[in-house]
Amino acid sequence: MKSYDVIVIGGGMMGTASAYYLTQEGMKVCLIERDDIAFGTVSHTDGYIGASEKEPGVDSMQGMASMKLYDEMRKTFDYDFEYSTNENGDPIGFVYFCESEFEMEMAKKQVAENQKLGIEQYMVSVQELRELEPNCATDLLGGMWVPKDAAVCPFKVPFAFVQEARKTGLLDVMTRTEVVDIIQDPNTKAVQGVVTDKGETINAPNIVNACGCWAPFIGAMVGMEIPIEPRFGQLTITEKAGKITQNRLCMEYGYFLTKFFHDGEGERPIPDLVKAYNVCLNITSDLTGNTVIGGCRLFRGFSIKSEYKIMQACAMRGIRFFPMVKDLNCIRAFGGIRPFCLDQLPIVSDVEEVPGFFMAAGHEGDGITLGPITGKLISQYVTGKPLEFELAHEIAWSRFKNKDIAALKAKEEANTRALQEIERKILARL
Amino acid sequence: MARLDDDMLVCRCEEVTVGEIREAIAQGAFDVVGVKRRTRAGMGLCQGRTCEKLVQQIISQELGVGPHETGSSSVRPPVRPISYGALAEGEF
Hints:
Chain A is α/β, with parallel strands linked by helices. Helix content of chain A is 32%, strand content 23%. The interface between A and B is medium-sized, with 36 and 26 residues.
C-alpha cells in the first residue's frame, strides 16, 4: 500500500503550489488530480499578478507576500512561466482607467490606503495616462498606475511547480484519478488516507484540499460545510496583433464595483448589455502577441459555456477604452469559474476539528497572484513551522467557527437571485 | 503510419513541432487539451482546425491508445474569426 507524508487533492494553482513548497520541506507528496494538471480555473483566466487588484488590508498584503515569492520563482525555476518584465528586468505594471468623477474619488481613497500598506500605487493624470497607454481612449479622466504589478502565463505556473517539485524526487503525480472517500480515525477524526475511484487506498497523515470550486465536495467527505460557490467569468482572445496595451494589464476602475458589488444598478455610465452581464474591461497584451479582453462576474452554477451576448458586451467595453480594438479579430471566447468564498477571502489553514486536514481554496479571481503564498503557508501549517504571514488568522478556516454557514449561504442565494432578476429586467428592456 | 520526424511542424499558427508534442506527452499530457496547454498547439488563428487530427494521431501513437481516447479541444465561439467591431454591433 502506498504511503506519503501528504496527499494534495487538486492539480491546479493551489494544489501544485502546495505540493512544491511541501517537497521543499522534505515532505513526500502525492498529488491527486481528477483530470490533468492545470485543468480547471487556472486555464480559464488571465495571468495578472499583483497586490493592487484587492481590497486594502489582508487581501492586498497577501498579494504583496506572494509577489515576493514570484520574484524568487522567476529567478530560480528552470520552467519558463512567462513572467513579463521590461528591458531592466522589472515588472511592467498595471493601469486602471477612471471614466467618472465617482471613480476618481474611489481610486484616490484606494491609492491612499494601499500606499499606507507599502504598495507602490499612484494616481495619474489624463496626460500621464496617455503616455502610459498611447492606444487608450482620449476622453478618460485619469487613472491609477501600479508599476510593480506583473503577469504570468496562468496555466504554465502549475506545470512549473510540478516540474520543479519533481526535481526533489519527493513528488508523485496521479492524474485522471478522483478521490471518492477520505479515511478518518473514528475517534479522533484525524485523516489517515484517501480512497480513489480506482478502488485504491493511499495513506497519509496529512491531506490538503486544494479543489477550488470543487472544494466543498471534498470537504463534505470529512463533514465540513465549505462556503465556496462557482462564480462565472468569460474572456475573449484576439488574433496576434502585437502590443495593444503597453502595461501588462489595463482595467477599468469599475472592476472593483463588479467584484465587490454587483454593478447592475451602479454608478458606471455603461450600456445596458454591459450592465446586465456585470462586465468590466480587463485587457492584456500577452507575450505571445495575442490580447485577452474580458471579463465579467456572474453566477451560472458549474457551467463554463461561452455566451455570445457576453462576448458582445466585452467587445463594447474593449472598444470603449481602446478604440483600435474595433478592427481586431476575435478568435476565441472562453468561460471559466472562480471559487468564490462567501466572505470574499480565501480559506488557507489547518482545520481544528479534522486533524491532518488542510484547506487551500476559495481564491476567487486572485488565485494566480496568491498561489505561491498559499503553497508556502500550507507547507508551514503541515510542518508546524512558524507562519510567515502575520495576518494568516484572517484567512484561516477558524474564522467560520461561530458563523452560521447555512445562513451565509441563504443570504448569498437571495443575493444571486436578486442579481439574476436585475439581469432579466435589463435584458427585457433591450 | 510511419513515425514522424521530431522537427516537423504540426501547429503552423503557433509553430509547434512533433518533438515538442512528444515532450508534452512525456511530461504527462494524455489528450488534445493537455498537449495544447503544454505547447500552445491549437491556440492560434485557426484554433486547431488543421493540426488537431495530427495531434490526436501523435498521442495515439505515443500512448498506444485509440484515436477516440485522445479527446478534442473544447468547442468555443466564434465559429470563425470576427472583428470586435462586428461583435459589438451584435453581428453574429
